[in-house]
Structures are given as structure tokens and as C-alpha cells.
Amino acid sequence: MDDLIQDGRALLGESDGVARRDFIKVTLGGGFALAALPVAAQSVIHTDSAGLTAGTVNVVVDGQSVPVYRAQPEGGSNLPVVLVVSEIFGVHEHIADVVRRFARLGYLALAPDLFVRQGDPAKVASVAALMSGIIAKTPDGQVLADLDAVLAWAGAHGGNADKAAITGFCWGGRITWLYAAHNPRLKAAVAWYGRLVGEATPLAPRQPIDIAADLTVPVLGLYGGKDGGIPQESIDRMKAALAKGHSKSAFVVYPQAGHAFNADYRASYVAAAAQDGFARCLAWFKENGVI
Question: Is 281 a catalytic residue?
């Protein structure tokens, strides 16, 4: 596994085609929610789409068209599939870049707009308004059903749904845990700093800790030791709950990182933790038979 991690770190080096570029605001798969987002630097890691089929497709779920940023090797078939679940800010350039990184490694990677029914995060004026106006109104059940539909679409469009994984960040990290419990056919999952505990609500009736003992999909949790919103105590509780089951899940905690350490467009970015986390994500998928 150490060799796999080293290979993953190398992928993020400029010699492998990943470079820094100026920040731009474009469409789905490109723009940031500028009104709400604390952008710290006018640049992001950029993975180009040369050799890839990349862009937005639409998956219809119960009559609703759900936009999905998709990338895959040109002409590829029977590809391993990875679902990429965004932060609260939706599918912007950083998330699209993560999708392209996976595609360059041979995956059919897809990031759905899971807030399409509730609103556009890019048009919300503050994080508080985003949380109350969109996030709090997005039901977990709706999200899980959308992910089911996107995975089914992938299986009919060049992907191998029997070799599927999921990864997600912040809000998407919590969803990653929940979807791993919802869909036991997944090979593996990687949750980046997703909330583990919390009160049940009608739209969010369960938290990751509530499904831990019954989880069968192996989940790797990547967390920051300085994350004030996700204290180590909650990680310890999750570990204890997982120990009662059989999922072979694991955690990596980066002592010098806080929340959103993979978000390279924000002040929270910690390059060493982000690069190591992505490498461990790749190794976890390979170790568990995704690719």
C-alpha cells in the first residue's frame, strides 16, 4: 500500500500534468459560489481534459433532470466508477478538477448537482443563508436516490457498476458514509472530513454514527486534527461504533490540518495532507478491488 500512496502523491505533481492556474468563474464544473465562498487565493490545481470525455450530462430522476459533471478516458468502456460528492458549495471548479483527476487514472467519475431542486449555491449571498436555504432543505433520501440513479446511468454509459466507489468532501463526506451504508454493493468509500454525529431531523434521520455497526462497505475517513467542527471525540465515538461491525473501515487524522484541508482554493488548504489524502484514497480503492 505504501507504493500506491507514493504513486498517488506523484500524480499531483506538476510533472504529471497537474499545475496551478488562475482562478476563473465559468459554468457547472467551473465556477465558485463567490458570494458565499471564502476564497483565499485566485488559483486552483488544474487538471486539463486532454484525452478525456468531460462535461455535463443530465440524469433524470423521478422527472427531475439532475446535471452531472462527468469525466472519463476517451473511448473507455467497462470503467471503474467513482461518485464524487461536493461540499455545500456545489459542483464548482475544484470538484470538477477532482473528477478529472480520477478520469486521468482510468475512472468514469461523476459529480452530480445534488442541490438542483433546492437552489443554486452560487447565487446565495452567505454561508448562513446557504445552510438554511438550501442545505437544511435537501433531504438525505433524495440525495441517496439521486446517487443511485447516477450510478445506474454510469453502468449504462461505459462504467462497470460492479466496480464502484464514492468519495465526498465536508457535506459530501457525511453523505459518503450514509451512501456506503445505503448501497452495500459499493467496493469502497473515502469520506473527507464529513460530520459523524448530530441530532436526527425529518430530512436527516440518521448520522454516520447511527449506521456504523451495520456498515459492510470499507470506508476510509480522512480528517483534520485541528478541525473545530469535528472534534477528535466524535471520531473516537465513530471508531468505537465501527468496532461493533464488520466493515474494515479506518481513519487517518492529519494533526496539523483543520477542516477542508483538501480545498486548494481556500485558506484551509494544507498541501501535504491533501496530497497524502488523495494518494491514500487511490490506494484504498485499489486495495478494495475498485480498480
Answer: no
